[in-house]
Specification:
alpha/beta; about 10% strand; 11 strands; three-stranded parallel β-sheet
Length: about 350
């Protein structure tokens, strides 16, 4: 359901909740001091000085903010996957599901949001064309400040610093920002020092969808590789663009990266795929997954894992001084609050570091 369609529903929910609250004394706020915060699209929004209850607009924001302030979250956008249970503290698994504002598996759960006590709703990612109008409308109808923080692979350090300012967590945010800067700058340096490999990123049950050059989901691929998937209309969806097997054979990549739950396990015995140089040479890999796809999907901050992994796989000579386990362990500690074991790491990269 689109934003405009459910604003009327939101009004009804607000009225119902307001009537239900009649005659009930509200708990006094511990701190009602406010200030003006300017978000990434220039909106000046009045927010509490001390924010202790944060709601999310979607799964990208969930990944970003779980790293910074897991104990401030009043809920999650979508339920954690079963894979996440191996890495995250169990106290986070029964949180209310708020849903998401744009696209995805479900719309924003307005009643849950209004009952959550959220002091702010934060949207993180690529701004939609209607972002200002959407944020303003929702804020007016709910009485809750809505904030948009723009973030892509390059700008996550700046995004974390903005979030640190908003949530009065500047030191914690600076730690995350500095890590992102370190990994991004290193990746750019590696990309500039190598002859880029000819690569396809393949998704889907049949392995005939590709992440096209120039798409939002291809940021890491386009940075680190010669992404052969050049199409007329790059898809903005994580499923990518559907192509024919004949087109894949024409591109004939030197390296193929398969999405989790694609056809990595079967291509070795597939006659058509055996005609592809990458498959014949054993130069194909499955993207690690846990608790999210390391290359994105959703295209959030976990793509820094994808940068480290893909750099190591494609350019071992240029990354010999970096230990992938150490880098991944640091990421899991900072962003998932998890002390990743060597056994867990080995399971994550079992199909991802060559045969």
């Amino acid at each position: 359901m689109k934003v405009k369609k459910w604003l009327a529903m939101l009004l009804a929910v607000v009225m119902v909740l307001s009537l239900a609250a009649c005659g009930t004394q509200s708990s006094p706020q511990t701190d009602d001091t406010t200030r003006v915060f300017t978000d990434s699209v220039g909106r000046e929004v009045e927010v509490p000085v001390q924010i202790d209850k944060v709601a999310l607009s979607g799964p990208m924001a969930q990944i970003v903010l779980f790293a910074l302030c897991p104990d401030k979250l009043v809920g999650v956008s979508n339920a954690w996957s079963k894979e996440a249970q191996e890495y995250l503290d169990e106290k986070y698994f029964n949180m209310p599901q708020i849903g998401q504002l744009y696209g995805g598996k479900g719309e924003l759960n307005l009643e849950t949001l209004l009952q959550s006590g959220a002091q702010v709703v934060i949207d993180v990612g690529e701004p939609k064309g209607s972002i200002k109008e959407d944020m303003d409308s929702l804020q007016q109808q709910t009485g809750i400040p809505f904030i948009h923080i723009t973030a892509d692979t390059e700008s996550y350090p700046a995004a974390y610093r903005m979030l640190g300012d908003l949530l009065n967590m500047k030191d914690e945010a600076q730690t995350l920002a500095a890590y992102c800067e370190k990994i991004y700058d290193r990746t750019v340096s590696i990309a500039g020092s190598v002859e880029k490999a000819n690569v396809l990123y393949v998704t889907g049950d049949a392995g005939q969808n590709v992440i096209a050059s120039g798409s939002y989901h291809a940021e890491i691929l386009d940075l680190l590789t010669n992404n052969l998937a050049v199409v007329d209309d790059p898809s903005s969806k994580g499923t990518g663009n559907e192509v024919s097997m004949e087109q894949i054979l024409t591109w004939n990549p030197d390296v193929v990266v398969f999405a989790p739950e694609s056809i990595y396990a079967t291509v070795q015995d597939d006659a058509a795929w055996q005609s592809v140089t990458a498959i014949k040479n054993g130069a194909y890999y499955e993207v690690p997954f846990g608790p999210y796809n390391w290359m994105g999907f959703p295209p959030s901050v976990q793509r820094y894992l994808g940068m480290m992994w893909l750099s190591k796989v494609l350019y071992p000579d240029a990354t010999v001084q970096y230990d992938l386990f150490d880098d991944v362990h640091e990421y899991y500690e900072l962003f998932y609050h998890c002390d990743l074991t060597r056994a867990q790491y080995d399971a994550l990269v079992a199909n991802s570091l060559g045969k």
